[in-house]
Amino acid sequence: MTELRAQLRDFLLSWFGQHMPGSVFLWYDILVLLWIGVFGFVLHFVVRMVAKRFLKGRFFSPRNQHQENIAAVLGERLVKRLSYVLQGVVVVIQSHLWVGEGSTFLYVLELVANQWIILFALLSLFTLLDIFQAASDRRSNRAHFPLRGLIQTVKLSASVLTGILAISLLMGKSPLILLSGLGALSAVLLLVFKDPILGLVAGIQLSANNMLSVGDWLEMPKYGADGDVIDIALTTVKVRNWDKTITTIPTYALISDSFKNWRGMSESGGRRIKRSIHLEMNSVCFLNEQQLAELQKADLLSDYISRKLSAINKENTEKKTDMSVMLNGRRLTNVGTFRQYLVSLLKQHPHIHQGMTLIVRQLEPSSNGLPIQIYAFTNTTNWNHYEDIQSDIFDHILAIIPIFGLRAHESPTGNDIRLLTNHQ
């Protein structure tokens, strides 16, 4: 085979010497370049045609048209870049076959081909990592590990190593010599790559402690973030706020600063209602017999009032209490009966979670009246349904307050003062 190539080379040199002007070696080198170019083009075309048929739909099975388009683009891009790598290898092989060893032309061809191989090998690695990322994004039960940040770290490291290898080939030196020289530049490198390093460490901590993942509801007032996490990258975390704006937060800020993750609420299946109704304190009083008789007709209060009246009457009789004096004995108050009504209302409500905390409590009175707070959980975490349930409950509460002889507190306004003055 070697003799055949030598004979063919001698024949071409002889033919160029007889028929072409100028240097025969120049014409021979031009012919070699044309041959390598044509051979590489044909090889590239064949590889892409074969690979497109063989690899079609084999990266991952798309679930919708958008994912199908992504799979097709990434697959075609990977095949294209791998074929370029193969072309570079073929150029190196062809150069050693047709160009004499030790010539300048061979050195230039090999140098250019090696740089070509390194470049497209790096781009092929990038595309392969993008395919892994797309396959991970497709999964509905994605792991909490920040894969995007890890992939960006691998890309960054591969780019640095590829740059060192390319420079070492240009200089004709071993890559180890350049790597050993980076020790003196470590301080500069730490400064330049401060954010990626901090982001990588933060991403590992977020993943190891299961603190944050894509899809979580994150609230971080310091950065104006209140919405769903849509991306966790090497250096940034993107949050789509409820007003559809995008907030970008440095990844390491999630470790150095505090934030609220609402994932626990979503996973629990219940969302908290914690709201108070403020009552006028001068409307609080004991219930008289007429009011008790009226309230006892209510389904949610009949058993409670009967049971409490029986216990109160028994205790007052045993102690021979003089009930003609309002300060003596035990009596039912309108606010206490009102609280019990709210407890019964929430316990039979179809949209209140009965397996979680359910309290109706009286808070400390203030200039804004007597707060009666409802502390309960809905059995859904859907925002629209949650607001509807909460609003319906307080609509009902505001409507039934007068039945108990109570009044909702309202701060006086200028109109109230003018009306009072005119009346006087």
From TrEMBL:
Q: Does the keyword Membrane apply?
A: yes
Q: Tell me how this protein sits in the membrane.
A: Multi-pass membrane protein
Is the keyword Electron transport assigned to this protein? no
**Any idea where this protein resides?**
Endomembrane system
Name the UniProt record assigns to this protein: Mechanosensitive ion channel family protein
State the InterPro entries in the record: LSM_dom_sf (IPR010920), MS_channel_C (IPR049278), MscS_beta-dom_sf (IPR023408), MscS_channel_2nd (IPR006685), YbdG (IPR030192)
PANTHER family xrefs? MINICONDUCTANCE MECHANOSENSITIVE CHANNEL YBDG
Segments forming domain Mechanosensitive ion channel MscS C-terminal: 340-400
Into which family does the record put it?
Belongs to the MscS (TC 1.A.23) family.
Q: Where are the transmembrane segments?
A: 25-47, 105-129, 150-170, 176-193
| UniProt keyword annotations, A-Z | Membrane, Transmembrane, Transmembrane helix
Segments forming domain Mechanosensitive ion channel MscS: 195-263
